[in-house]
Each structure stands twice: as C-alpha cells, then as structure tokens.
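RECORD TYPE: protein structure
NAME: Acetyltransferase (GNAT) domain-containing protein
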Amino acid sequence: MEIQFTSILPEAATPADADLLCYLGSTTFAQTFGYLFDAPTLAQYLAKTFKSAKLRRSLQNPENKYWIAYAEGKAMGYAKLKLGSESSYSKASGQVQLQKIYLLKEYLHKGFGQQLLDLRLREAESKGSDLMWLHVFQENEPAAQFYLRNSFRVLGPASFTIGQQALQYYAMGRDLHPRG
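PREDICTED:
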C-alpha cells in the first residue's frame, strides 16, 4: 500500500510515551542498522538502549526534548533534541544536539524526515541555539547526503562501539545564525 500522507503532526512526548518510544526506537534501529550485528548483539543493544524506565528518565530531563511524529493518527517515528549538549568539535555557544530522527521504514524517503528536521531547527533557533550538531553513521550515505543538503557540514570523525564492533560516524553541524 502506497503511503500518501503529505504532512506530519509532531507532538511533544511525555513520560507516558516511554513504551511507544521504545517500540519506535528499537524497530527503526533494527530496520536501519540490524544488518551490522549478529542477532544476540543486536538484541542485547536494543534491550539495553530502549528500556521503558531508561526512556522515562530521559523524558523527565528538561534538557531532553522528544517529539513523536504522527500521520493520520499513526505513530511513524520520533525526533530528540538534547539542549545544552556541546560538541567537542565547535566552540559555538548555545549548542543543541539532534540525537535522533528515526522513522519507520515505510515512511522513509517521503519528505517526513525533512519536516521533522525543519521543525527541530526552528525549535533550536527559538531556544537561542547557535549550532545544531549530530552524529551520522559513515556508511549511511543517504543520511549524510540529507544533512549536507540541509547545510550541515562535517565537523570531524567519531566512533562508537556496540558489542565488539566499532562503528565510524561523522560529527556534523549547522550554524543556526550564520554570519552574513
């Protein structure tokens, strides 16, 4: 069935949404990155990272801002900003980290990621942030190109380990108040 939604309705998430965020996070991570890991490593990572209690605590932190994206009443993904999160690659004041834009597979490449990013950029600007930064997996070329098209630049390399596997990322950033 072809999805024909044209826009999303993001809603601020609350601690009551922890279970839904666990589902969205674990499902989208497995859909996107599951091929990189053996089944036990993936299961262990998902169980550790997407626990309801852990997400509930994160949702209670005022520096963490989550939005769940809905279309026609169905949750399709979410975004997370971490306010006051400074990148070691920049000395800009007022930094904000875009920690996640996760969409279920059937909603990818339909413009919803762009809508979520645009809304999060406006949110960061309204908070007075000067730089939005993020990490993107180096092998995820479509995601890296998406951010480059949206005026992000590569700030430097980053590495994360899941199980025994070291994964290489780009740290990317976008000036929110560019000097003209």
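COMMENT: The helical segments are 18-33, 39-49, 52-60, 112-126, 141-149.
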